[in-house]
Amino acid sequence: MTGQEARLRYLDWLARERRAAANTVEAYGGDLADFLHFLNGHLGGEPDLAALAGLRAADLRAFLAARAAAGAGAATRARQLAAIRGFLRFLARTEGLQPIALATIRGPRLSPPVPRALTPEQAREAASEVGQVHDPARAERPAEQAARDVALFTLLYGCGLRIAEALALDVRDAPLPGQDAGLRVTGKGGKQRLVPVLPAVRQAVAAYLALRPGATPAEPLFLGARGGRLDPAVAQRSLREYRRLAGLPEHATPHALRHSFATHLLGGGADLRAIQELLGHASLSTTQRYTAVDAAGLLATWRKAHPRAD
C-alpha cells in the first residue's frame, strides 16, 4: 500500500466512521498531502507502509521545521501535527505499524488570543437595545422576549458573567432593586463567587420579571419561547441579528460583553486581582490577557492625540 492509498483510507474512515466535518476532512487531507510530499524528498522516494513504519520522531520534527521555513504559522503546524498523529495511529491499529514515540514530539506553542472587547458605547448599546431586533409577527411573546434579552445582555456586561453562568440562574437568584447583596454565581468547576450588581442590571431584570407574573423561585430566570431554560444558541442569534442591523463589529458576541466588562474595569483603574475574582479566573495569567487589550487602547489614544505620533 502506498502512502497516498493509506491517506485516502484514513480520510474515508474519518468521514464515515468518525463522522468528521467536511472541512476537517479536507484540511487533514491537505495536511497529509503536504507530509507525504515532504517524505518523498526527505526519504528519496514515494513512501509506502514500510517507509511509514520506519519513521522516527526526528522525521516529524524535520517536517515541522520545513513547514515553518516555508512560512506556515504555529496554528497551521499544530493542526498538521494533529493530522499526522491521527494518521499514524490509524495505521498502527489497522495495519499493525509500530507506533513511533508521538508523545515526545512537542507541537508549536500557540499564543492565547487577545480578548476582543467592544467600546463602552458599543457594549451599552448592545446590552440595552438588543430587544429591538425581534419581529413581533414571529415572536410568541415579543415584549417578554425583548425584555429578556435586554436583561440577559445587561447582566453579561454589567457583571462580567459567562453566558452559561447567566443562563443557569433561577428566578430565586434574580438581582432586583432594593437588594443589597451581590449575585452569587457558580462558575467553572463548581466554584462560586460573589459579584456586585449595578442598579441598571437590577432594573433590567425587574422589568423582565414584571412580564412574568406568577414566576416561581425554582423556574429558570431566562426562559426560551417554549418555556424551558433559554438555549445559548438562541441568545447568540439574538445578538448576531442585532449586530447586523446596528453595524456592530463581528466580534460583538455575548462573550465579548464579558471581555468588555474586564477591559473597561481595567481601563478605569481596577486592580487586576479584583478583576480576577470578579471573572472567576483560577489563574491570574488568564486575567492578565486584558492588559494587552488595555495597552492597545492606550496606544491608539496616544496615536490620535500626540502631535508627533505620525
Automatic annotation (TrEMBL):
InterPro entries: CB, DNA_brk_join_enz, Integrase-like_cat_sf, Integrase_catalytic, Integrase_recombinase_N, Integrase_SAM-like_N, Tyrosine_recombinase_XerC/XerD, Tyrosine_recombinase_XerCD. SUPFAM superfamilies: DNA breaking-rejoining enzymes, lambda integrase-like, N-terminal domain. The active site is at R162, K188, H255, R258, H281, Y290 (o-(3'-phospho-dna)-tyrosine intermediate). Residues 113-303 form the Tyr recombinase domain. It is found in: Cytoplasm. Keywords: Cell cycle, Cell division, Chromosome partition, Cytoplasm, DNA integration, DNA recombination, DNA-binding. This is Tyrosine recombinase XerC. It comes from Roseicella aquatilis.
